[in-house]
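GyrI-like small molecule binding domain-containing protein (Haloferula luteola), 306 aa
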Amino acid sequence: MPRLVVTRSIEIAAPVEKVLPLIRDFREWPRWSPWLVAEPETQLQFADDGKYYRWEGTVTGTGEVRMTEETDRELSMDLTFIKPFPAKNRTGFQWEATAEGTRVTWSMEGSLPFFMFFMVKSMEAYVGGDFMRGLMMLKDCAEWGRVPSRVEFLGVQSFTGADYVGRRQRCAIAEIGPNASEDARVLNAWVASRNLKVTGSPLMICERWDMVRGQCEYTMAVQVDPGPDPLPEGFFQGELPPCRTYDVRHTGAYRHLANAWTSGVMHSRAGRFKMKRGIAPFESYENDPREVAEEETITVIHFPAR
């Protein structure tokens, strides 16, 4: 059986005694679970002592997890997936006090069905991404008592198309936030200097996303008619065609936006919609993060759908 090993860590600015109750009691997990955001209506069953729970959903699948051993530095669990395919894994958390608060590590060891041997690297990347999303939400729960992230599923919509001027970039996935912000600043400054009329929301088109290598390619775009003058170096004109899209709206901090992206992908895999090839998924922004609190930032992710 192909072996699967995943480990991710995070620093939390809170003492161990504030972090541990969020981990060692499964009844607290819905507050920061990286999977339940994709299907909040998932049916959950908890043991009275909070040491076991079972989940069942059409998007999240079916499975159960049980705490098996706890020391002063580590918590071990047995994780069993039942649907969409059976698998058993060992997972757990390690923690240590630091000068900043607590360092938490989430790890998993297990195996994949033999017929999925070619997916080991991609599964390690995907599960690692899920673990990191969960740890980031755990961090907010421990530090602030809440997670500034809300995901809403708007279903299939009609996108009327868009003409845009954009800048296309390649970068590490971890750097996309600051890089895209700088692209938006440059584009907005150009629009203002030309006194151009904006015809729609800013867009970011996800041209390529490689979780295994941690690299991405994207286009940051503004919807404008640029007129007859030549575009600055590095700018280009493009078009998104009219199409049906499955829309997912995220309200909250941009650092948690992957909750919405991952949830949309999970909905597609669960058969709630089928992705359309040939048109890249894209984000649109319903307000300006410079003008609202981070928990009020609204981003809509549009998945082209058949």
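The CA atoms of residues 57 and 258 lie 20 Å apart. The chain has two domains: 3-146, 154-305. ok done for today
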